[in-house]
Amino acid sequence: MSTLRQIEANRRNSQKSTGPTSVAGKAASSMNALKTGIHAKSLVLPSEKLADLELLIAEYYQRHHPASPEARALVDDLIYCEWLQRRLRAAETQLWAYDHRDSFEPHDKYPLGQTASHKSKAFGQLQWRFNCTRRASQRALQDLKELQAEAQAAPPALQPPSLPHSPQITSPQIGFVPAIPTPAPPRPAPTTSLKPQIPLATGYNGVGIPGTVFRSSILP
Hints:
The chain has a domain at 36-153. Helix 4 packs antiparallel against helix 5 (69-102) and helix 5 runs antiparallel to helix 7 (120-153). By secondary structure, the chain is mainly α. It contains seven helices and two strands, in the order H-H-H-H-H-H-H-E-E. It is elongated and about 145 Å long.
C-alpha cells in the first residue's frame, strides 16, 4: 500500500509531464487513441525480427491515419499482407538454397534448374500463396480508399434549429401582495365663462350707450 509521501511524490511527478513537444512525437501521440489490432509477437517467427514488424506497423499507421475501426482493420490487413509477402520471398530464397545444399549430386552448371525441377510443386504452392496475399492486399487498399473518400464526402452534421427566445415570466413571491395603484380623482369638467351683461342706459334720444350713465338735465 502506498504511503502518503509516495502518493504526494507521484502527484508532483505527474504535473511535470507535459506530453510530446516535437513534431514527430505529437504525430505519434495523435494516433494513440486508435492503435493496431495486430499482436506483433504472434506473427514473428524465430528467424524474423520483432523490430521490423513494429517499424512496418508504424509506417502504415503514419501513412493512412485510420480514424474508425473499419479503417483500422483494413490497415491491419495491409500490414499483415506486406509482412507475409516478405516472409514468402524469404522462403523462396531459402527453398533454393536448401535444395541446392541437400542435393546428392548438385549440378555445377545448372543448379537453379536442378532445384526448380526437384521442387516444382513446392514453388507452385509458394507462388499461389504469394498471389493470394497480393490480391488481398490490393482489395484492402481499394476498400480503404473508398472508405476514406466516403468519410471526406460526408456532409457535416446539421445543428438543431434554435428555438425563439421566450420572455421570462417572473412569478410573484409567495406571501407578497402587490400594491394596488390608487386611481387619480376625476378632473372637473371645464366651465365656459360668461361675459357679464352691462346694463344699457337710455338717453334722450332712446339710444342705449353701454357703460355710460346719463344724468337728467332737467332740474327738479
